[in-house]
Design goal:
Elements (H helix, E strand, L loop, with lengths): L1 H18 L2 E5 L1 H6 L2 H38 L5 H26 L4 H28 L1 E6 L16 H8 L4
Parallel strand pairs: 1-2
């Protein structure tokens, strides 16, 4: 009987302590839209990306033109010339693929540029959320902009404006 009472008390204590945990939400998209340096960084990334894409497109167009020219002149070329032209076309196509990888690949220039421009802003947001969480005792902070499975979230637990204020962008 005594063991049962102790187990019941422990169960009630664990249940009560579980209810006392505090949760909060943030909306990273909302926060980022209200940070001017993020908007400038995004604009800069878009410009660089468009410039590099134009370079890739121009190189790809050259490869296609080389191939069309080869097809139209193929009947007049010797076997040796055909082989030479085919090798030039393949080389140009490989250059296009390499250029795409260089600019847009997993460790490409765009990734590095994004890392240098956006990561410091994301780190600042993380540090602000962490500081607010420690100050107010939040056990869990969820990002509602990245989780599509929220059905309802009470706006009272949204601390996005607090994060903006902590970063110096009061709303």
């Amino acid at each position: 009987m005594r063991k049962m009472i102790i187990a019941s008390v422990l169960f009630v204590a664990a249940t009560c302590s579980g209810m006392a945990q505090k949760f909060a939400l943030i909306d990273t998209e909302y926060i980022l839209k209200n940070i001017p340096s993020y908007e400038m960084a995004s604009e800069q990334l878009n410009k660089v990306s468009a410039k590099w894409q134009a370079e890739v497109d121009a190189s790809s167009k050259q490869a296609k033109e080389m191939y069309k020219k080869y097809q139209s002149e193929m009947v007049f070329l010797s076997d040796e010339m055909k082989t030479k032209r085919e090798e030039e076309i393949v080389k140009k196509e490989k250059e296009v693929v390499e250029l795409q990888r260089k600019y847009f690949g997993q460790d490409g220039e765009l990734f590095k540029k994004r890392e240098s421009l956006i990561k410091p802003i994301q780190d600042d947001i993380y540090n602000a959320v962490k500081a607010i969480s420690e100050e107010k005792g939040y056990m869990l902070v969820l990002d509602k902009s990245s989780a599509n499975n929220f059905i309802f979230a009470n706006p009272k637990i949204d601390i996005s404006n607090e994060v903006l204020a902590k970063l110096g962008y009061s709303k």
